[in-house]
């Protein structure tokens, strides 16, 4: 395979409710079958949703597309995945097929870049990364996006890898923990 590997996202159809099991199985098979150079990431399209029930903010994870998993794969041959990668994904337990495949062993179409960008934004995984955020634990910050927009919080933990901070926000007189992306906070109060 050449040094400049082209990548594309494909949608895999699974049994509803088995998305995380398929993700785990596929990640394991990728490792054991030595496919790390052809299958890169496996994601279940989910997003964090906050609701207020009985005066308390409750956060839950909702699956945006039940029965589907996203797989980022190498596409060295005319924008299409390799036969080996197709075989590994297609024969993973819980996978029923690819979205966009016409059956009879045909390979599917990949998602368009704008579709991928929209999905990543919904999941809070935008390509924008803040290299360095000058904050520290205990610092008060202002929240500029999401359900706590306009509120202030106190940083309790910083995760540079995920580009997130864990902060507490006072809601109805109670401290409520929340995770915020670096782009969702302002340190200039």
From TrEMBL:
Record-linked Gene3D superfamilies: 2.30.30.30, NusG, N-terminal domain
One Pfam family hit: KOW
Domain KOW: from-to ranges: 134-161
Domain of life: Bacteria
InterPro entries found in the cross-reference section: KOW, NGN, NGN-like_dom, NGN_dom_sf, NusG-like, Rib_uL2_dom2, Transcrpt_antiterm_NusG, Translation_prot_SH3-like_sf
UniProt keyword Transcription regulation, yes or no: yes
Statement: the UniProt record of this protein carries the keyword Secreted: no
Domain NusG-like N-terminal: 6-123
UniProt similarity note: Belongs to the NusG family.
Function summary: Participates in transcription elongation, termination and antitermination.
UniProt protein name: Transcription termination/antitermination protein NusG
Designated gene of the protein: nusG
């Amino acid at each position: 395979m050449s040094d400049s590997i082209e990548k594309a996202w494909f949608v895999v159809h699974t049994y509803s409710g088995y998305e995380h099991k398929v993700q785990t199985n596929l990640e394991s098979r990728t490792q054991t079958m030595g496919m790390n150079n052809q299958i890169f990431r496996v994601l279940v399209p989910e997003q964090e949703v906050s609701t207020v029930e009985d005066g308390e903010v409750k956060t839950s994870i909702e699956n945006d597309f039940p029965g589907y998993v996203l797989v980022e794969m190498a596409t060295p041959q005319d924008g299409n995945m390799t036969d080996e990668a197709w075989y590994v994904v297609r024969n993973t337990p819980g996978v029923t097929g690819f979205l966009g495949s016409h059956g009879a062993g045909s390979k599917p179409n990949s998602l368009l870049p704008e579709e991928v960008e929209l999905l990543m934004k919904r999941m809070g995984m935008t390509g924008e990364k803040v290299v360095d955020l000058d904050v520290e634990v205990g610092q008060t910050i202002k929240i500029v996006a999401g359900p706590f927009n306009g509120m202030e919080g106190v940083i309790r933990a910083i995760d540079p890898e995920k580009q997130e901070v864990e902060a507490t926000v006072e809601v109805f007189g109670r401290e409520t923990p929340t995770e915020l992306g670096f782009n969702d906070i302002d340190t200039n109060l």
